[in-house]
Amino acid sequence: MTVKVLFFGPAADAAGRSELVLEGAVDTDELRQRLLGLFPKLRQLGFLMAVNKQVVQEKAVLGNQDVVVLLPPYSGG
User: Could you report the per-residue pLDDT of 11-57, keeping only the tens digit for each?
Assistant: First the structure.
């Protein structure tokens, strides 16, 4: 199973890239742990995940070719 991870804003800075293709992550919890292992600076950032344009708050099962976006903290006015 292959998933594409997209990084935006501070998440892209922390990862040093704007996208990554990973294999083998079966759910968002496993993916989060792998990403934190690959990019330790993400630990300081905190982020939400969106899978196929849907924000997920809890563990979600990933499918082949899913697109996961890391959403860094944001503020606005």
Answer: 999 999 999 999 999 999 999 999 999 999 999 988 899 999 999 99
Domain positions in the chain: 2-71
- The two three-digit tokens of residue 59, written as one number: 């563990």
User: Nearest to residue 43, comparing CAs of 32, 51, 54, 28?
Assistant: 32
User: Could you give the CA distance from residue 68 to residue 55 in angstroms, rounded to a whole number?
Assistant: 9
pTM for this entry: 0.91
CATH topology of domain 2-71: Ubiquitin-like (UB roll) (3.10.20)
